[in-house]
Amino acid sequence: MNQKKQINLTIDGQKLIVDEGTTVMQAAEKIGIRIPRLCYHPQLSLEGACRVCIVQIKDYDYFLTACAHSVEEGMEVLTNSPEIRQSRRDIIELILDNHPKECQLCERDGNCELQNLAYSLGVRERLFEGKRKRHKIEDSSVAVVRDAEKCILCARCVRVCAEVQGVHNLNQHNRGFDTVVTPFDGSNMDDSVCIQCGQCINACPTAAFLEKRHTDRVWEAINDPNKLVIAQTAPSIRAAMGEGFGYEPGTPCTGKMVTALKKLGFDLVFDTNFGADMTIIEESNELVRRLNSKENLPLITSCSPGWINFMEKFYPELIPNASTCRSPMGMVSALTKTYFAKKINKDPKDIFMVGIMPCVAKKFEIERPEQVLYNNKLTDAILTTRELNWMIKSYGIQFKKLHDTEFDNPLGESTGGGDIFGTTGGVMEAALRCAFENITKKKLDNVEFKDVRAVEGLRESVVEIDGLKLNVAVANGLTNAKSILTKIMNKEKEFHLVEIMACPGGCIGGGGQPYPPRGYEILDKKLFAKRAEALYDIDKKKKHRIANKNESIKKIYEEFLKEPGSDIALEVLHTRYNARLPRGI
Question: Which long-range contacts (CB under 8 A, 24 or more apart) does 133-137 make?
């Protein structure tokens, strides 16, 4: 193995040796110096657009961008000379002078990278008054709002959409002062190939992209005495929301989360993990049927609405392979407005169901025509983790001081298999646990299928169940998914079960999760791993870890659904998907 050439250089008077090809920015971080940046991200291609990371090099008569230039032998770098500090300040001042003057009204106030840089560089006034870019807010989308006036042209949204998600929906159009980031031909997000995943929101350093707010409609429902307002919370919420209240990443906050929702005024709090267990029972039954018939294999999971949107637009040929199961959220909502409504003698129209989700695409999911059952909309509003955290703070609730509260029954019971749905590979692992017992009729002693856990983004494996070898694959982030989908389309490899999550890391990296706490970046695998570990810890502590052990689910089958795959189960718990093109194409 060839050893990389070593480069000697000096940064701010400190000598160091690094590998050839190391950028100045990377070299500086090795000795504890963080050079300011806006457009740079370690998981994305180099853009070199913002120029905030400029440094001074001895014997150079111009500044270099630290993110895009590699070290050279004998290089002497200054990262904080008076000239550099002044130039960086000038750059930020120019960006701010073409930026809306509404920090106190902005949803990113206090959590904006541009704002933080302005503070750290000592920008205390606006120096120029003149023509400023003007664009209308594009909020016609059901999920993603675009405010081009707050865009600083860093292109992080463009790159995450293309390089991580493989959608290529966004680009910079026009030139010079008129440059703007939009979908092709300036169409709105719903009319484009956007899959509503929200990764552009996570990647944006300002507030040029945000989720469509549902907080007002939730407050209105809570204050309506005629509404029974029910929240259901996705698995990954409990592993991430604590970051917004000062907890270390990976701290489970399940009990406090339920207490906070009750204090906000929710009448009942159900657990989407219940729906995850139900999904696994229906989906494992579906898998066994397909294995026996050898039709429509591989079975591809359908829990991620961003992935479903992507499939319908880019891979409609694979729709027959997708599981027909509703998402876990959809199942809880469907059972709430059928089985539970009848049980408590309540008109489903008087039940207001709120999904607390890590996923911006859930706002898109609830508006699909398939999300209506017996003339009742299944889920009425979606709050992202960020929106829930804001509501809790807005209400004056001191989250860390809350006691723990249990979920309400009957749709609050779950097994460990439901908890791990929130991380990539979790759906696969939960399905394999249940499928093992369905196929073998034996008790599964070791319930952990660690070979399918894939925080790294892509994993293929062979799982043996009682002599039956299953080829399985797990992918998160749709660029990773494309490599699996290509193999399926080209018949390069025979898979039996495939899990695809639209967002990097799965739901723990969803487009509606908290912005990364200090010390972490977006797309940070260390952060994803900590959130995932929280879910695995919850799983390990559960009395039951396989979905078919959920006693409440057994009771619902006895009283209402009869058996997995029955006619009533197919009507209530299953759905359909259709090839779709953006309007105008």
Answer: 133/98, 133/177, 133/178, 133/180, 135/180
Phi then psi for residue 580, to 5 deg, are: -135, 140
DSSP per position, 313-339: HH-GGGGGGB--BPPHHHHHHHHIIII
Q: How confident is the model at residue 458 (pLDDT cuts 50, 70, 90)?
A: confident
What does the pLDDT average to over 223-235?
A: 96
Distance CA 121, CA 93 (A): 10
What DSSP element (H or E) covers 217? helix 215-222
**Residues 398, 401: Cα–Cα separation, whole Å:** 6
573: which residues sit within 8 A by CB, 6+ positions away?
278, 282, 325, 326, 331, 334, 335, 561
Q: Which of 168-172, 257-261, 282-286, 550-554 has the highest mean pLDDT?
A: 257-261
- Does this model's pTM top 0.85? My answer is yes
Tokens (6 digits) for 119: 């503070």
Taking alpha carbons only, the member of 304, 272, 317, 356 closest to residue 489 is 317
Average pLDDT, the chain: 90
Range 73-98 average pLDDT: 93
pLDDT value for 213: 95
Catalytic residues: 283, 286, 303, 323, 362, 365, 370, 507
pLDDT tens-place string over residues 349-404: 999 999 999 999 999 999 999 999 999 999 999 999 999 999 999 999 999 999 99
Strands 351-357 and 228-233: parallel
The residue whose two tokens read 């750059």 is: 91
CATH 3.10.20.740 for domain 1-123, yes or no, is yes
Tell me the chain's radius of gyration from C-alpha atoms: 25
Cα dihedral across residues 521, 524, 529, 535: positive or negative? positive
**Strand ranges inside 124-283, DSSP E:** 144-146, 170-173, 180-183, 209-211, 228-233, 268-271
How is domain 144-212 classified at the architecture level of CATH? 2-Layer Sandwich (3.30)
Lookup: tokens for 428:
């696969």
Q: How far is CA 506 from CA 259, 270, 530, in A?
A: 26, 22, 13
**CATH value of 216-573 in 3.40.710.10, 1.10.540.10, 3.40.50.1780, 3.50.50.60:** 3.40.50.1780
Strand segments, DSSP code E, in 130-240 are 144-146, 170-173, 180-183, 209-211, 228-233
Query: Of the spans 179-183, 468-472, 544-548, which averages the highest pLDDT?
Result: 179-183
Confidence at 582, pLDDT banded by 50, 70, 90: low
- Do the Cβ atoms of 20 and 35 come closer than 8 Å? no
Which residue(s) pair with 76 in the sheet?
10
Q: How do the domains of the chain map onto residue ranges?
A: 1-123, 144-212, 216-573
**φ, ψ for residue 210, nearest 5 deg:** -145, 160
Beta strands in 86-142 (DSSP E): none
Tokens linked to 78: 């200054």
Closest by CA to 147, choosing from 185, 188, 110, 111, is: 188
Burial 103-133 (b: 16+ CB within 10 A, else e): beebbbeebbbbbebbeebebeeeeeeeeeb
